[in-house]
Amino acid sequence: MEWFCRSLGLLGKRDRNKTGMKIFAMLVEAAKEYKSVDADVVAQKVKVTRTAVLHHIRTMEDEGLVERGNGGFGLRAHNFRDLVDEIEKDVVRALGSIKEIAEDMDSRMNMPVRKKD
Q1: Burial per residue of 75-106, b for 16 or more beta-carbon CB atoms within 10 angstroms, e otherwise
Q2: Please, what sign has the CA dihedral across residues 33, 35, 41, 43?
Q3: What residues are paired with 73 via a beta bridge?
Q4: What pLDDT, in 10s, does the model give residues 67-83?
Q5: Chain centre to alpha carbon of residue 20
Q6: Dist CA 23 CA 29 (whole Å)
Q7: The domain containing residue 85 runs over which residues?
Q8: What is the pLDDT of residues 44-54, one digit of tens each?
Q9: In the chain, how many domains are there?
Q10: What's the whole-number mean pLDDT along residues 60-71?
């Protein structure tokens, strides 16, 4: 679990108590039952402030792992594989947009363009 969280950027150098991983683990447990979690409940169980929980949740939202709904927060998918598949789709969409912008910039700046195979 720690490697997975670290790979997703959930464990920063400042997170010495691994709060992000603890919160992620609670989200995983809730996902098993198709439930969401409440920030106040997480704060009590992890023994941190609600503000700290929301900070970590926002990071997870930004990473595309968590969604708001049903009066709380939950994982975008109900298992790790589907979660990674969702992240992959996000990356592919983002790269497609970047590619379009790059092509537009090439055209506007008269850059040499390689021929597609």
Answers
A1: bbbeeeeebeebbeeeeeeeeeeeeeeeeeee
A2: positive
A3: 37, 68
A4: 988 789 999 998 999 99
A5: 12
A6: 10
A7: 1-117
A8: 999 999 999 99
A9: 1
A10: 88
pLDDT interval class at 117 (50, 70, 90): low
Average pLDDT rounded to a whole number, residues 98-117: 88
Q: Quote the pLDDT of residue 16.
A: 82
CATH code at position 108: 1.10.10.10
Of 59, 60, 64, the C-alpha closest to 87 is 64
Average pLDDT in the 19-42 region?
Answer: 93
Tell me how far apart the alpha carbons of residues 85 and 80 are, in angstroms, rounded to a whole number: 9
Contact (Cβ atoms closer than 8 angstroms) between residue 43 and residue 58: no
Closest CA to 43 of 65, 13, 73, 1: 73
Say what angle helices 39-46 and 19-32 make with each other, to 10 degrees: 120
Torsion of CA 86, 88, 90, 91, to 10 degrees: 170
